[in-house]
Amino acid sequence: KGRGPIQLTGRANYREAGRALGIDLEANPQIVATPAVGFRTSVWFWTKHNLNALADAGTLAAFRQITRKINGGTNGQADRENYWAKAKSALGCGSGTEVVSCTANGRAGVCKDKATCTGTAHAGFCPGAANIQCCV
């Protein structure tokens, strides 16, 4: 049964999270539903699956990868993407569906992972992690 903000599921996840947190979650799975433990298991899951880099990318493609890692599929994806776009708009970081544009040294580009840039990547012109750079 899924519990906590990230809806932790599966005996193996309960065991591994419990081991990492020093709590016997297999014997006491219901405590994952409490804020004190639920948020700790959510942080454990987020960290274990390296989701910060994807979140820092701020792209719809990255958001979809996060969804797959957390949910294991695309069930409810349209609703989730709608809420994500609303949240990004409310927070002033765009609609969540557009390409983030940038300008580096007077040249227009797009913010993307440096590893996927087929042009020249320029650091310091895009929000997010250091690997997200202005590709011109």
From TrEMBL:
The protein in question is named: chitinase
Asked if the Swiss-Prot or TrEMBL record annotates the protein with the keyword Hydrolase, the reply is yes
Pfam families annotated for this entry?
A: Glyco_hydro_19
| Entry EC no(s) | 3.2.1.14
Give the signal peptide, or none. Answer: none
Alphabetical UniProt keywords: Carbohydrate metabolism, Glycosidase, Hydrolase, Signal
* GO annotation terms (biological process): cell wall macromolecule catabolic process; chitin catabolic process; defense response to fungus
Broadest EC class assigned to this enzyme: hydrolase
**Coiled coil, from the record:** none
Which reactions fall under this protein's catalytic activity?
Random endo-hydrolysis of N-acetyl-beta-D-glucosaminide (1->4)-beta-linkages in chitin and chitodextrins
State a single Gene Ontology molecular function. endochitinase activity
Q: Which InterPro entries match?
A: Glyco_hydro_19_cat, Lysozyme-like_dom_sf
Q: Which organism is it from?
A: Rotaria socialis
Glycoside hydrolase family 19 catalytic domain sequence ranges: 2-49
